[in-house]
Design brief:
Length: 641
């Protein structure tokens, strides 16, 4: 039996909160790849299936001309348990409201989340009284004060850069991806309180590559002054993302097998191409089940996935394994795994559905007119309504999904915004909204609205029940409204063209959106600086921009919200927004720009607060007393009323 090391004993560190996989070889379209998924009857069948699928791709350089790893990771599939709930699904998603009139506040743990009640990992969380923060090696617990913070406790966990946390009741779940390889690090005692360990500066990341594994460590914080590690789960692979809903945590990871392939002319071997190919093919024939499936385990004791819990498509189309791990932090050793013969790069979750998608690029259908490569997105749906996770359906859409905000589920219907090469006369990219319904084990596309933003990038998407709002950009910012009331016939009903663009849209009530993005030159499209805008959607056929405000005092700058929506905070009770901003060339230091929205649609800068560190590490967390805690550079930097 293999043993998975605790993360504080591993020498290596590489963090990936999001795994983006470029597929090099053409593959079947998502619709062709999906269909009935079949479980393996035995481990022998599983191993033989992988070997048969791999052998035609083995050459003198490995698989598909590989570099010791398998780069052909596309495919479909998914797991063991078929959900009886597949036929009906009613979502109570928060950010998706019945109309555009409702404002949206941060989630219960302080994070600006996509769906109400569905928490997302972040670098800082709060229960309204204390703040939990990932800072270097440590998990810190601090009590905010007006001008700083009181340190309640700290736990030195030997964390790697990029670690994030979930807060579930009285437990903190620390998530990270670690990788074996030489890494300089202090000799620490796992679980030692960080306030008793001298600070050390050490390089991050492995000096050599190695097999990655995801680690989820549950920490009991029922007594904030004495946090205690309960257990650590390990899954071979890299972290895609995670979600928590009603006390249940779901972790999505992906793993690709690695082999010690030989290469022609390799020093010490001097093999010809024919000899290298023969050695590599023999290596694949001698593989075992353990070489193909990721190991999982608790507290270092590892086991392989149950072969009967792995499902594959009818024809081989890849070798990556997507794993959905489900557990409750109150009983973290009671774990469920779903194995998926597929890759995954984006995660979206509503209250009762978890969706994992991956994009596939097809060079064989490259558009000579636009210079664009056609992309297709494969989507897997899971029932996440209870304390277990069950596979529901798979499907696909043409085009590439830019980020998780491009997904929305409403009443059992999945809506997906994509950008890709369209059917327009110039063969240019265009944005589209696809509508999919669950039918058996398929996600069938029942409607599509396209033709938006021809030749432009898709910058932002927001959903409101039967309405979608899209922002595209090249030189000007077209904002589109899309009517989704008829799933089979979605229609573009409104368009607004203005200079600049919004990268994030947030509902602030009264049929208005607050957009965070960039001002830009209307002739050249050159970005001029971070900007906030208020849009009026009172007339969906004629959306309007009511006001704007520069986010940096001297122009220029960039908001962290453009790259990470979790960096944004909105307080609907006061109409106040908090936006971390990176300095412009004529400015120094990171600032939190405080915006005041007016009942008349006005927008003004209420305050600017200088904070240490990078804007990407700033969070503003609402507290129980009505103030907000300012988290910057790994610590609470005071509060604001």
């Amino acid at each position: 039996m293999r043993r998975l090391s605790h993360h504080w004993l591993l020498t290596g560190g590489f963090l990936a909160a999001l795994v983006a996989t470029a597929v090099l070889a053409p593959r079947p379209s998502p619709s062709a790849a999906t269909g009935e998924l079949q479980p393996f009857a035995s481990c022998v069948e599983l191993r033989d299936w992988y070997v048969r699928a791999a052998l035609p791709k083995v050459g003198p350089w490995g698989l598909d001309g590989g570099w010791g790893y398998i780069d052909d990771v596309g495919g479909t599939a998914v797991t063991v348990e078929r959900s009886d709930a597949a036929a009906s699904s009613e979502t109570a998603g928060a950010a998706e409201v019945s109309d555009t009139g409702a404002a949206v506040d941060n989630g219960e743990t302080g994070t600006n989340v996509q769906e109400a009640g569905v928490d997302e990992p972040d670098i800082a969380k709060t229960n309204g009284e204390v703040v939990y923060i990932v800072d270097g090696d440590d998990l810190l617990i601090e009590r905010p004060t007006a001008d700083g913070a009181e340190q309640v406790a700290g736990l030195n966990m030997g964390l790697q850069r990029g670690a994030e946390i979930l807060l579930v009741d009285d437990a903190v779940v620390v998530l990270e991806t670690v990788r074996s390889g030489e890494l300089l690090q202090p000799d620490i005692d796992p679980g030692m309180r960080s306030d008793t360990v001298p600070s050390t500066d050490r390089p991050y990341g492995p000096t050599e590559g190695g097999q990655a594994q995801v680690e989820a460590t549950t920490v009991d914080v029922s007594d904030p002054t004495s946090p205690e590690i309960v257990s650590t789960q390990s899954i071979e692979g890299t972290l895609v993302s995670a979600r928590a809903h009603e006390g249940t945590v779901r972790i999505v990871s992906t793993a690709t097998p690695t082999f010690d392939f030989v290469h022609p002319g390799e020093p010490g071997r001097g093999l010809t191409e024919a000899e290298a190919e023969r050695v590599n093919r023999d290596l694949v024939r001698r593989t075992s089940v353990a070489d193909w499936l990721p190991a999982t385990g608790v507290d270092g004791d590892a086991t392989e996935l149950d072969c009967g819990d792995v499902v594959h498509p009818r024809s081989a189309s890849g070798f990556a394994t997507l794993v959905v791990t489900t557990f409750g932090p109150q009983a973290p050793t009671e774990i469920g795994h779903l194995a998926v013969v597929s890759d995954g790069s984006l995660v979206y979750s509503s209250a009762d559905r978890l969706y994992v998608s991956t994009v596939e690029y097809h060079d064989s259908v490259w558009s000579f007119r636009s210079g664009e490569t056609r992309a297709e997105t494969t989507i897997h749906a899971f029932d996440a309504s209870g304390t277990t996770t069950a596979y529901v359906a798979s499907g696909g859409v043409a085009g590439q999904v830019p980020d998780r905000w491009a997904f929305s589920e409403d009443g059992g219907v999945l809506r997906v915004a994509t950008v890709g090469v369209g059917d327009n006369d110039r063969g240019m990219t265009e944005s589209s909204v696809h509508v999919l319904r669950e039918r058996g084990s398929d996600l069938d596309e029942v409607g599509v609205a396209g033709g938006m933003g021809v030749g432009e990038d898709l910058k932002a998407v927001r959903w409101f029940g039967d309405l979608a709002v899209l922002v595209t950009f090249r030189q000007t910012d077209p904002l589109y409204t899309v009517d989704l009331s008829d799933a089979g016939d979605p229609r573009v009903i409104g368009e607004l063209k203005i200079p600049g663009f919004s990268r994030y849209l947030h509902p602030i009530g009264d049929d208005r959106l607050l957009g965070i993005g960039q001002d830009a030159d209307s002739r050249t499209g050159m970005e001029k600086g971070a900007q906030a805008s208020i849009f009026d959607l009172g007339d969906l056929a004629d959306p309007q921009r009511l006001s704007t405000a520069a986010l940096s005092p001297n122009g220029g700058g960039r908001s962290a919200t453009e790259d990470d929506s979790r960096a944004f905070t909105y307080d609907s009770s006061s109409g106040t927004a908090y936006v971390p901003v990176s300095p412009s060339y004529s400015d120094t230091g990171t600032r939190i720009t405080v915006l005041q929205t007016g009942v008349d649609g006005g927008l003004m800068v209420k305050d600017r607060r200088a904070v240490p560190g990078s804007a990407s590490a700033v969070r503003v967390l609402p507290l129980a007393d009505g103030t907000v805690a300012l988290v910057a550079d790994g610590h609470v930097d005071g509060t604001m009323a």
